[in-house]
Design a protein that fits this description.
The protein contains 13 helices and no strands. The chain is mainly alpha-helical.
């Protein structure tokens, strides 16, 4: 035994051996539970609204469009003048606070602001309802035609060609003769024609999408054709559709104005923005406000729809999710 060695004690024999990692080894991380590892799912509608709310131009346009609609609905009840009420002391006067003619009067002494708000009701209702009808029919028709293909696609597209060959005025006059003159027939006539372009657009998108891998995977999993069309094809083709809808609304407003100008649409004492603009063109030199006021309302509405359509296209596009 050397001098440096120490005697062996019983306490050392009874002491527990140290672990291999040292006196304080690191603890292994606990496995995460499935609730912590998997993020909560988000629906398509909620994701679209979240991304739409981040688009300032789209949200500002949506707010202004809602404000225009509310003003057209509530405004006439708050104004002292009626739609066909004549102020015999003011024929073609400009904007003035006297007698509450805030935007002037027309050539017949009727309050222009009241008529613009009433006209907004007609124009917006015709445009929105007819666009919704064309959207519903055109999207379903085009998606089914493109998905089935073959003879069914040929037959469906030949029917579209036949509808294209029918003059729009012939269809409107036919509806007027059969059902009588009614404002709701304008909705039916315009919506029954405008869906043709929508069907062609959706059919082209469907033909490009139905050979994708996720469609073939859905076939392999036994998913029904109706669900493939409604859950896969239509959502992926919704971007161009939204853009075309924003272009359909002003087109429908112009068509309604054209019919009213020919005496087949809105009749007195009712009015619309198209009718007011047509009347304002004749009085443009002597009474420019009769043209500028309804044109301003129409232009603001169209700008809001265009910006909102761009925002919806970005928000609903599955490729950018």
């Amino acid at each position: 035994m050397t001098s440096d060695s120490k005697p062996y004690s019983g306490e050392q024999a009874n002491a527990a051996p140290l672990p291999a990692g040292g006196p304080n080894p690191p603890r292994s991380p606990e496995p995460e539970t499935s609730a912590q590892a998997a993020p909560a799912g988000e629906s398509l509608a909620r994701d679209a609204w979240r991304r739409l709310s981040q688009n300032r131009a789209a949200m500002a346009s949506l707010g202004l469009l809602v404000a225009i609609i509310l003003v057209c609905i509530v405004g006439p009840w708050l104004l002292p003048w009626g739609l066909a009420e004549v102020d015999w002391n003011a024929f073609g006067t400009g904007p003035t606070l006297e007698n509450a003619h805030y935007l002037g009067t027309d050539a017949n002494g009727r309050d222009l602001l009241t008529r613009v708000l009433y006209g907004g009701r007609i124009s917006l209702s015709v445009a929105l309802v007819a666009s919704f009808v064309s959207l519903l029919i055109g999207v379903l028709y085009g998606a089914i035609s493109g998905y089935l293909g073959g003879r069914v696609d040929n037959l469906m597209m030949r029917f579209v060609d036949i509808m294209y060959s029918l003059p729009f005025m012939f269809l409107v006059i036919l509806l007027m003769v059969v059902f009588g003159r009614n404002i709701f027939l304008i909705y039916a006539a315009i919506g029954a024609v405008e869906w043709l372009d929508m069907a062609r657009i959706v059919r082209g998108q469907t033909l490009a999408l139905k050979r994708r891998e996720y469609i073939e995977a859905a076939h392999a999993l036994g998913v029904r054709d109706s669900k493939i069309v409604t859950r896969h094809l239509i959502p992926n083709a919704i971007g161009p559709v939204i853009i075309y809808v924003t272009l359909t609304v002003p087109k429908v407003i112009l068509l309604e104005s054209f019919l009213s100008f020919l005496g087949l649409g809105v009749q007195e004492p009712l009015t619309s923005w198209g009718v007011l603009i047509s009347e304002g063109v004749d009085m443009m030199e002597s009474s420019p406000w009769m043209l500028l006021v309804p044109s301003a309302f129409l232009a603001m509405t169209l700008f809001c729809l265009n910006f909102l359509g761009d925002g919806l296209r970005d928000a609903l596009d599955p490729k950018t999710r």
